[in-house]
Amino acid sequence: MGTSRCKAMELLPLLLCSVVLFSSVVSCEEKLVRIGLKKLRFDQNNRVAARLESGHARKGMRAALNRKYGGLLGDSRDTDIVALKNYLDAQYYGEIGVGTPPQKFTVIFDTGSSNLWVPSAKCYFSVSCFLHAKYKSSQSSTYQKNGKSAEIQYGTGAIAGFFSVDHVKVGKLVVKDQDFIEATREPGVTFLMAKFDGILGLGFREISVGDAVPVWDNMMKQGLIKEPVFSFWLNRHVDEEEGGEIVFGGVDPNHFKGKHTYVPVTQKGYWQFDMGDVIIGGKPTGYCGRGCSAIADSGTSLLAGPTTVVAMINKAIGASGVVSQQCKTVVSQYGQTILDLLMAEAGPKKICSQIGLCTFDGTKSVSMGIESVVNEGDERSSGAVNDAMCSACEMAVVWMQNQVMQNQTQERILQYVDELCDRMPNPMGESGVECGSVSSMPTVSFTIGGKVFDLRPEEYILKVGEGTAAQCISGFTALDIPPPRGPLWILGDVFMGRYHTVFDYGNMQVGFAEAA
Asked: Which cysteine-cysteine pairs are annotated as disulfide bonds in the entry (predicted)?
């Protein structure tokens, strides 16, 4: 892997609306390309909009997970994360140019998707388009018509438009004949309030809409970079102007400390890898003890993971949540039975089927409600309730296992689980915490490649506003992805800010080291 440093060149800082943009730097002999990033502070208006948007997105989550998206995206198992992404939380953006001469756009460099899209001058009926830069094909001498329709489904609606072909300038490199989407429809609050114009996906071609070749793939094919590697350094120091840097073609040794821990990509599409257990305050949760999957996603600010674990984190950090009546019903009616079965060393995966809340297919519990969902409205309602009861039971089993491992008394275990029912992650996507309590919160750790990666509370708590008006929110949000894709963690900017991240396409691996 190339760790040689590029020849130093002068950086031109530009301060605009509290956003910092640094010019890109490239050394031709090294073919190491640096893209400066803008860093945006969390905005209260965006925060409110994100909550509204997330609420609508989660209502349609089951449909989004199973939708084929018109066949454009292939197997829905490879598209669910894109469908649920909410970019209003994102903080880091950079600038690219499309066309000749280059038309400038601010984009999210997103490792969790694979297409490049920008607003089109032919976008007439979406208010969002009037608030952002728009691509004008008539003003580019290198434009080529394609015209094939395209749609990217998100939880709150679809970005729709058509494909075109043109040169794309990334830093001082020019990627020729790049397929991209001219967006003619941008629904929802997200794109109306967003500070970015479009998205440049850095995921694999396997999840690319229309099987379009991603920008990153063309960089490699056209010989524009030294090595098939790119890396992210995100500056988490709020008082510093520099937002961070993406390096295409290698890594900058000044961006990290020590050595990277590498793990292989387990499924092309996203930058997905295997992850071990999550540890709260030095104590294993046990949920991922036998393994979970994770995705390194630069297009997501927060850390998203299974409700079961996020609820445990919420309680440990004193985060506000919502009361789950189904959870409390399971604990009051079946809690002692579940505990007795655990103490009798019954198979944890079978317990919820043994007490009649789930069925067991031989490998995992399956909600009994799934079979009962038919066209009748009342039976749909019944199926939804059964789903919730089954899920609540499965969570209670994990929580009790965790406490049994810590040799807690039966009374304390039942009390702990009941308290967790009061700390369920907010379905609107965020949980508040007391700003004055941050210093006393526990470290939350992730096990990757046999190494434990710690996050201190000041790193996973996000602060909105200043002084007496300041509010603090947890950097953890719940997202339940069913097998075979899940259970899954999405490690966004909160994690990538603490740990310099290398995306090594040549060796199909992802690496993490402490950021400098």
From this structure: 123-129
Complete DSSP assignment for 144-179: EEEEEEEEEEETTEEEEEEEEEEEEEETTEEEEEEE
Is there a contact between 151 and 70 (Cβ–Cβ < 8 Å)?
yes
**What is the longest distance spanned by two Cα atoms in the chain?**
74
Give catalytic status of residue 217 as yes or no: no
CB count, 10 Å around CB of 8?
Answer: 8
Token digits of residue 220:
């490699």
pTM of structure: 0.78
Which residues, 6 or more positions from 283, have their beta carbon under 8 angstroms from its beta carbon? 402, 406
Highest mean pLDDT among 32-41, 59-68, 301-310, 445-454: 445-454
The answer to whether the CB of 251 falls within 8 A of the CB of 258 is no
Please answer whether residues 202 and 111 qualify as being in contact, where contact means their C-beta atoms are separated by less than 8 angstroms. Answer: yes
Q: How far apart are CA 146 and CA 254, in angstroms?
A: 42
SS3 (DSSP) at 362: coil
Cα–Cα distance, 279 to 254 (Å, whole number)? 29
- Provide the CA 472 distance to its chain's centre, in angstroms: 20
Check: CB of residue 137 under 8 Å from CB of residue 121.
yes
Cis peptide upstream of residue 425 (ω within 30 degrees of 0): no
Q: Which of 62, 492, 58, 479 is nearest to 310 (CA)?
A: 479
**Tokens, residue 276:** 């071990």
Alpha helix segments (H runs only) across 406-425: 410-421
Active site residue 378: no
C-alpha pair distances (Å), 126 with each of 129, 130, 198, 369, 436: 6, 7, 14, 40, 42
Catalytic hit among 78, 80, 277, 297? 297
pLDDT in tens, 160-169: 999 999 999 9
CB count within 10 Å of CB 130 equals 11
| Contact between 213 and 179 (Cβ < 8 Å) | yes
Q: Are strands 476-478 and 303-305 parallel, antiparallel or unpaired?
A: parallel
CB 2 within 8 A of CB 250: yes
Angstrom CA distances, 8 to 3, 5, 28, 381, stand at 15, 8, 12, 63
Instruction: From the candidates 80, 89, 110, 493, give the one annotated as an active-site residue.
Output: 110
Q: Which residues contact 332 (CB under 8 A, 6 or more apart)?
A: 418
pLDDT by residue (tens digit) across 41-93?
A: 655 544 444 444 444 444 443 333 333 222 323 333 333 445 555 565 556 88
